[in-house]
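Incident log, entry 3
Record: DUF4352 domain-containing protein (195 residues)
Problem: checksum mismatch between cached and fresh output.
Input:
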Amino acid sequence: MKFYSLPAVAIATILLAGCGNSGDAPAPQGPAPQSSSAPPAAPTARTPAAADSSPVPPEKQGPARLKIGQTYTGADAEVTIHSAKFGGRADSEPDKGKVWVPADVRICNTTKGEDLPTPSWSSWQLKTTDDYELQPADITPKPRQPALPYSATLLPKDCVRGWLTFELDKKSKIKEIRLIEDQLFGPGPAIAIWN
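Fresh output:
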């Protein structure tokens, strides 16, 4: 059986305890350290664990990124964009050089009734590959009907589905459709992004 001496750190601590000014109180005397047959543990470098860092709150993580057809689940609603494509007619013609882009949207209330979500057209934005940001046009798409209500309060466990219609330059391409925070003085940050 092998015996190991005390680690150097323990010896240095004992030696330093004996050194000091004459005004220092004497170090308490305790039982002598026992030698052990087990080797001393080597010091290890500590790496930060995942639990050491604070979790990032959902509102600081940025918007959810989804594909068309996927559902965003938020604190008070589930939202799905089922499709978004160039073309289609509406109750009026688009401006010259423009086309309609209808998007089929479904919104469901997932609250227990405390805060009823009120989706509106101003909660939506289409971004193009050439960096234009467009709000839905105030038109009814044809033959794709009904339009998503301009603003509707959803009762608990209730859903609404309809079409949003964006007017897009024929030369532009859809980059993404955003669900955004509807703020008093204009659009807020994106909550979810479909592309």
